[in-house]
Design brief:
Low-confidence stretches: 8-15
Helix content: 25-40%
Number of strands: 12
Strand content: 15-25%
CATH topology of the largest domain: Rossmann fold
Structural class: alpha/beta
Length: 361
């Protein structure tokens, strides 16, 4: 199995220093920031900027790779040769894990929510191409997925393999480091651009990106607000999830955090802002208005959003801006939207787009 050099990084130039655990160098970093010049013009004096994390690397694009740099480093540190993880049929995280597993020589076993489709496409097709083994679990039995993961881990152990279970989205105490590190990168971006946004906006589906940004903002002194649009569950769920992940993070890395800004964070005092109301029909499905927003952004900026995560969150951003002083983004001059990837999720839902040129599209 191929092992990459583990990196341990200490930030000492900032007054609120923190040390990172081992990580792999997998993503193309730093990712750029793009200002949506034409699209922003429809909102007067508001500037919308996009952190292009869909450019972390084509096959493993998006926010998942930032978290997996730490999760898979942990797998190597534990001498694991098998990665077990879970998600929806079109899970970006599962696809990224399958690709990285193939590159580094890990066996990958995915637990996917839903029935096995007749013809795989999008992320699922890539899972198969990378040789991942897949167990399908019907949606009405999804509560059993952790038990199944434990069974698989035991089965692999009985054959001499050593498995590491990575939860949905790599959103746990280890994965949280991914967007703490991303926040450090953002602070450097803001300094270079001579711009500090009033809001950092992202989609939240498993809570890891949201939690990392909130913790990173505390550590590195971001003065604005992290605002997330949930694409599953509800705001109350993410309030509990973020705080629990931060508690777990502080407990698991207590020695590393000792004497740093991370140790001084009080989970109960964190500002966890999750704006509900934009899930639409449910996780993985969206309304016509979201497809319209995705198409408008593509036409005006050549920027592609997906119908599961970024399309819904960006549509929420746009809708709140259109509410003016009554919206969640009132009085904003600059907004930074974190593009968390998901491009491959467009293809299984192409029927949602209405192109008059193609009557049968």
């Amino acid at each position: 199995m191929k092992h990459l050099t583990l990196q341990r990084k200490k930030i000492s130039a900032l007054p609120t220093s923190i040390a990172y655990p081992e990580r792999l160098s997998l993503a193309n970093l730093p990712t750029p920031i793009t200002k949506l010049e034409r699209y922003s013009s429809r909102f007067g004096n508001v500037n919308i900027w996009v952190k292009r994390d869909e450019l972390t690397g084509l096959e493993v694009s998006g926010n998942k790779i930032r978290k997996l740099e730490f999760s898979i480093a942990e797998a190597q540190a534990q001498s694991c040769d098998t990665l077990i993880t879970c998600g929806g049929l079109q899970s970006n995280h599962c696809r990224a894990t399958a690709v990285i597993g193939a590159r580094l020589g890990f066996k990958v076993h995915l637990i996917l929510r839903g029935e096995k489709p007749e013809d795989p496409d999008g992320n699922l097709l890539m899972d198969y191409l990378c040789g991942a083994e897949i167990s399908f679990l019907p949606a009405d039995r999804w509560s059993e997925h952790l038990d199944l993961a434990s069974q698989l881990k035991a089965q692999y152990q009985s054959t001499g393999r050593r498995g590491l279970f990575i939860p949905t989205g790599a959103s746990d105490a280890t994965g949280l480091w991914g967007y703490i590190a991303a926040t450090e990168e953002l602070i450097a971006d803001f300094s270079r651009l001579e711009m500090t946004p009033d809001y950092i906006v992202c989609a939240t589906g498993s809570g890891g990106t949201q939690a990392g940004l909130i913790v990173g903002s505390k550590i590195f002194g971001f003065s604005g607000q992290v605002l997330s649009f949930n694409v599953s569950d509800d705001p109350e769920y993410f309030d509990l999830k973020v705080r629990q992940d931060v508690k777990d993070w502080q407990r698991m890395y207590s020695e590393l955090l000792e004497g740093t800004a991370g140790s001084r964070i009080i989970p109960s005092d964190l500002e966890v802002v999750t704006h509900g109301g934009y899930i639409g029909p449910g996780y993985g499905s969206c309304d016509e208005e979201v497809f319209r927003t995705i198409q408008e952004v593509a036409v005006s900026e050549g920027l592609f959003l997906d119908p599961v995560y970024t399309g819904k969150a960006f549509h929420g951003l746009v809708t709140e801006l259109n509410k003016g002083s009554e919206g969640a983004l009132a009085n904003a001059d600059n907004i930074l939207f974190v593009h968390t990837g998901g491009l491959f999720g467009l293809f299984p839902q192409q029927k949602g787009f209405a192109f008059p040129e193609f009557a049968d599209f």
